[in-house]
Amino acid sequence: MSIFVTSPSLPPLDEFIPYLRKIWENKWLTNNGEFHREFEAKLAEYLGVKYVSLFTNGMIALQVGMQALRITGEVITTPFTFVATTHAIHWNNCTPVFCDIEPDTFTLDPAKVESLITPRTTAIMPVHVYGNPCKVEELKRIADTYGLKLFYDAAHVFGVKKDGASILNWGDLSMLSFHATKVFNTFEGGALITNDETMKKRIDFLKNFGFAGETTVVAPGSNGKMDEFRAAYGLLQLKMVDGEIEKRHQVAIRYREALRNVPGIRCLYDLPDVRHNYSYFPILVHEAEYGLSRDALYDKLKAHGIYSRRYFYPLCSDFPTYRGLPSAAPANLPVATKVAQQVLCLPMFAELSKNDQASIINAITG
Ligand SMILES: Cc1ncc(COP(=O)(O)O)c(C=O)c1O
Question: Residue 78: CB within 6 Å of ligand 1?
Fold first, then answer.
């Protein structure tokens, strides 16, 4: 028996066949087809945002978003993220400046951002990591005060709301990922979210080689377009996603109840006024109190056929491309360094059975 850290939820195949039939009839495979237009509109409605630009994946959306915002120079960001965030900054010929994170949510610590601003800083790229909203009000105040762009890597926050409104409405842009491992997937896929019509237009030019018309190229664009197959699949997934989130919620409740009093194991809990999406279930392992290190627990689970993941270890600031940067020094990133050493993401997906979850819990507590 193997239990993986995640498992994608697929809609019934029968329900997808009529969509495929339509694609075969239309013979319109990509380039803003019927399903693409419908998916953008339905997603904007579901998410409670004005404009959605669909992408072939989240990484290209990040790269294109930085171009759309004309970000240059230094970008203040978190080291506690998937490498895509830092790589997008590097691919845009910008320098990532790593800033430490909050001990409770593992998101960028606004109190530490201001001291990192220099004349070369043009943007802040925070990450709503594990679906936990960043301190958006404080980050907005800093960005407004210093005239910086605010571009959220929102890969993990599909469906997350704060005070009843989408978290995606904060900042100049937000990027969603629809990768197979996410709460909402289109196999591969992603989107940029904006409330600015002109920005939406510019993003759409940039994701289509810079074309603004048949013979007009207005910018050195890329190819980030989502095709009709995945847009159609996304429409079907959208019908399922609230049920998915509720099932994940129940899994989280069971983990929290079982692990609440285990010495040396710390779970994260729901934040007030936030609708979470339970995209991950991270725990922190305190070696002295638990009796095993995080890595020893990881190995123990593996021996039971349970594949947890050490997201996000190593920190991005520890990878060879970035570790020489002055801001990458572990002494500047004490919270991130400690969390990266202690964190373990347990299996979390809608169809995780009670039996399998009990095996995971027994392996941790036994
Ligand atoms: C925080 C974060 N940023 C960016 C990405 C990149 O998204 P994609 O895999 O859709 O390219 C991911 C996930 O894969 C992610 O977890």
Answer: no
